[in-house]
Amino acid sequence: MTRFTRRDFDTEHDLATGQLHKFVLKELHGHVLEVSSVHFHFDSAVLLPNLTPPPAPAPDAAPPPAEEASADGEDEGPSETDLAVPGLAVLRAIYLQAEEHPAQKILITGHTDTSGGAAYNVTLAHQRAMSLKHALLGERDEWVAIAHAKHRVEDYQQILTWVSKVWAADCDPEGIDNIHGSRTTRAVRNFQALYNEEFEAEITVDGVVGPQTWGAIFDVYMEVLADILDVDVDQLPAERARLSFVDAGKPGVGCGEHFPIDLPGVDGRRSGLNRRVQVLFFDPGEEPLLDCHPAADQCRPDDCEIYRKRHHFFFPIDVAPVPLLPRYRLEVELGDIDKLFTPIVAETHTDPGVRERLQAVGFLYSPLTHADIADRAEHAWAHFKKVYEKSDDASAVAHLRDRVEQLIVDGKALPPKGELKKLRVPGAYCVTPAQMAAGFFGTNAAGHRYREESSVWRDNDSIGRVPILGKLEAKFRRGWRPAGGVSLHFQLDTPDPIPAGHACAREPLRQATTTSTNDNAAPPPATVTFTMTGHPHGYVDAQLTSKPPSDPLADNVHKDFGGKRGDVVRGVDPVTNLFEVGNRRTYFEGELDYADPSASNHAHAVKAVTNDRGEAVAIFMPSFMGGDRYKLRVFVDPLRGRPSNGRVKPAVVKETGTLVVWRIFRISKYLRWPYPAGTTAQQKARCYGDLDDFDMAAIATEYKKAWLEVELEPEARAPTNLTAADHLGAIQYAKANARPATTQRYDLGALVLETGTSAGVIELRTAAQYDAAPKAPPPPGGWPSAVSDPSYWNNMSRIFHELKTELLHYFTRNAISGLTILQAPAVSSFTPSPPPGMPATPYGNSGWGTDRRACWVIFGHDAYFGWMPYDHTANALHETGHVVYGVHQYTSTTQVSVNTGATFDAHDYTDLCIMGYMKCDPDFCGRCVLSQAGWDTSRLSANPPGP
After folding, report:
1. CA–CA separation, 191 vs 172, rounded Å?
2. What does the DSSP assignment read for 572-596?
3. Cβ-based neighbour number of residue 749 at 10 Å
4. 747/756 Cα distance (integer angstroms)
5. How far apart are CA 540 and CA 933, in angstroms?
6. Which residue, 423, 406, 425, 421, is CA-closest to 464?
């Protein structure tokens, strides 16, 4: 048996005739690693690092479940659709092949296209082969010599573009045009400076690409090569030690233009496919003869065993793609909220920055352009200092800044993924004097509240805004460094549900229907028994029905009712927009060098470009609807030159937890006018007995059902008795500031006593007593006689209303940020059992809600277990409900009709509400809950009256 190869086809064999001879043709095998995808530029021997990656999917294409990004902010590497074969991946593949097949020998062949002379092309092809070989073996000086001698401008333009992406560096020449212009000079200089910093070198920073700069490029190649091999640079020699060449004297040879793969036989043709290098691997005994290359830069194509005679059969080696660098990591955190506000210059209540911050933390509830803002801000500032025990403005300002940062988002930090935190906005807006004068109780109050809150939000450029800060880093030689000039997209995502009992969950609503039996001994209301078929939970749930899950705000309040679901995502209006775009905040973005956010091609998103610190900011503007939830995701797009939707691998994306809107509600004072010393048992009985304490915690719990976070200030947790001085100051203030709308004028100094000796807080003289009392100088025509005035008692009703309102205002002027409750046995000396001949009706009321952020609650214990339909704590809740825009409820025109401003469309008429006068659970109906949560309930469909 005779064995031979194709190499032996021309060999003569001397064999005997008449015998059977067996010939075995042995094939010569090899393996080829095709480097044609790493193009060399025309007439250049510089190994280029990468190619343009394949097309990307649409930005918001739905991801396959297995390819979903983890959203932990770390670069996850490539998916099959986001890979390319950069030149350094070829070097990696050579090392891996040598590791798996250590006995194989290597030959590198270089090729050119068919343009140029044949001899010139052989030399150029040899330079290309050796460029790869020098990079493979880490021969820096030799590689630099070839690159410097045989390069084009477009070579280093492409390399610098690649470096700008690999390390997110500012060295992009902004185009590859083979012209070394000013932009290229800038890019080269920036690269040279970056190299000096990263490698602790001192090459000349001059914008010229000479041997020093080619050496720097080589060093970057080696760093990235080590990175994709997952080894340190000092471990590369071990990788190189595995390599063995067919001929150590000729590791790379130049084949010139002789063996084109694109349009063979066509001369004078430029072709990127023909400008290539091949790396061939041979098992022992399979090596080719290299007689066709008497020298490495000489080629006799007719003698070539590999390409002309085809003695070898080659198996292709696949080059495993590697990630397109750079590798990023992303963090998302809460920006400096205090920086959103106007800088504080004067540390007093007159400073706009102080007023803005007071409003944001729930201490100032008036528009900043209000005519009385100076007075209101002064008292709000005094109250803030009192609550937090700050004796001077400087320490108060420091604490105010801290409250802004700690309160608005819990603990000055966004919630981590999967967790929830409160996002607090001002709430509990109260009826204004103008609205009361305009007939508030005859309207649907919810619309008033919504308009009032909207005007405040639009009037304060800083309120209701949360800066979301993305911080991006890229992996450099010496570790992670800020990545500037990269687009981050800030997008709303589907929020997490709120588990029952969680700190962000509201107090549960009643889910049971109510039966009321009003069998009281005295009116109101009339005795009646009926059953209601609804409850607050059912009403609220019916309004919060989820919408299609594609909307991340599906469970939030719709724009038709004052929320932001379905409204414009980006803009400048804090009432309708969710991200601020177009209203540059110079003292925020300018000082911190943040770029303005702009429109994003992703749904529910904006984008911003990172600065030199790798930071980008989006200003998030949540609604002021209690219970609205928001979750954010921030991601890089484009990622390594390709579009990314932040969901499909690879993605650099970070998700936050969920922010839940809660509204700030302060109750500042619980005051009591006690029975004067010496009050008899009979006198107490006339005022229905002793004054029991309200359950303030129960009142707070009820408001928490409407996403109102109630802070009971120290003076609101238990009653504080008014002193004689408090009472005298309040009476004198009321007399001086009341503006009674009466048909005749009265001298209030003579009408109102200042003794403080009765159970009534306001002591009025009778008509006869008034006529006999000394008075101020009379007006023209003299003082009228009260005894002969037929409208005296009607006038007293109006005067009394003004007096009781202004008396409460005396106490709220120093607590304007929170509600005040004043409890008393009686409001006037005529209540509840006046002297003979004096009517009790104008004054026989259990309480009043006023437009001064305060309310009265009167009578002792027995009234609430006698003719009142509910107890004294429930009545206190009822009166505070008036202060926060609640109007009366009545259930049916044929059953109970209380003529006190009730309207059919202000309540859920399948359920009882504490704002009515029926025995019921001490809670608000569902419609009131939504109103307190911020809804514009005037836009809800009219709720029909009960049966």
Report:
1. 9
2. S-TTT-SEE-S---IIIIIHHTPPP
3. 14
4. 19
5. 11
6. 425
Q: Could you identify the residue written with the tokens 């307190």?
A: 932
Integer CA distances (angstroms), 669 to 519, 692, 774, in order: 34, 16, 36
Total count of residues recorded for the chain: 947
**Residue with token string 């006037």:** 828
Token match 């919504």: residue? 450
Tokens of 907: 């309540």
- The HSE-up count of residue 836 (CA atoms within 13 Å, CB side) is 0
| Beta strands 629-636 and 653-672, pairing class | antiparallel
Q: What is the pLDDT of residue 548?
A: 72
Of the chain, the percentage scoring pLDDT greater than 70 comes to 85
| d(C-alpha 494, C-alpha 505), whole Å | 17
Match 């070839």 to its residue by tokens.
Answer: 146
CA distance 940 to 926: 12
Write out residues in the chain with pLDDT < 70, as ranges.
1-13, 15, 21-26, 35-39, 50-68, 70, 75-86, 321-325, 437-446, 477-478, 517-530, 584-587, 589-590, 740-744, 830-844, 867, 890-905, 942-947
Region class of 319: left (phi > 0), else alpha (psi between -120 and 50), else beta: beta
- Token digits of residue 769: 């007593």
- Please provide the distance, in angstroms rounded to a whole number, between the alpha carbons at the two ends of the chain: 112
Q: 365-378 pLDDT, tens per residue?
A: 888 998 889 999 99
Strand, coil or helix: 786: coil
**241-284 pLDDT per residue, tens:** 999 999 999 999 999 999 888 777 777 888 878 888 999 999 99
Q: Which amino acid is present at 919?
A: K
Q: Which amino acid is at 549?
A: P
As a three-state string, the secondary structure of 293-338 is CCCCCCCCHHHCCCCCCCCEEEEECCCCCEECCCCEEEEEEECCHH
For residue 309, give Cα distances in angstroms to 289, 296, 828, 864.
12, 19, 121, 113
607 half-sphere exposure, CB direction, 13 A CA radius: 18
The token pair that represents 627 in the structure block: 């219970």
3-class secondary structure per residue, 39-98: CCCCCCCCCCCCCCCCCCCCCCCCCCHHHECCCECECCCCCCCCEECCHHHHHHHHHHHH
Task: Report the alpha-carbon distance of residue 88 to residue 754 in Å, rounded.
Answer: 94
Answer left, alpha or beta for residue 740, where phi above 0 means left and psi between -120 and 50 means alpha.
Answer: beta
Element holding 667 (H helix, E strand): strand 653-672
To which H or E segment does residue 736 belong? helix 724-737
CA–CA distance, 85 with 97 (Å, rounded to integer): 16
| Amino acid sitting at position 82 | D
Q: How far is CA 158 from each of CA 154, 163, 522, rounded to the nearest angstrom?
A: 6, 9, 93
With a CB cutoff of 8 Å and minimum separation 6, the contacts of 537 are 508, 509, 510, 511, 926
For residue 301, the number of C-alpha atoms closer than 13 Å in the C-beta half-sphere is: 14
Question: What is the value of pTM for the model shown?
Answer: 0.79
| 3-state secondary structure string across 384-433 | HHHHCCCCCHHHHHHHHHHHHHHHCEHHHCCCCCCCEEEEEEECCCCCCH
Provide the β-strand partners of residue 660: 422, 629
CA distance 917 to 523: 10
Q: Distance from CA of residue 709 to its chain's centroid? A: 21
Distance CA 630, CA 569 (A): 13
Q: Which of these, 639, 620, 575, lies nearest to 324 by C-alpha position?
A: 639
Query: Is 89 in contact with 76 (CB distance < 8 Å)?
Result: no
Q: What is the distance between the alpha carbons of residues 433 and 943, in angstroms, rounded to a whole number?
A: 28
Q: Tell me the HSE value of 640 on the side-chain side, using a 13 A CA sphere.
A: 32
Backbone angles phi, psi at 248, to 5 degrees: -60, -25
Encoding tokens for residue 209?
């690409």
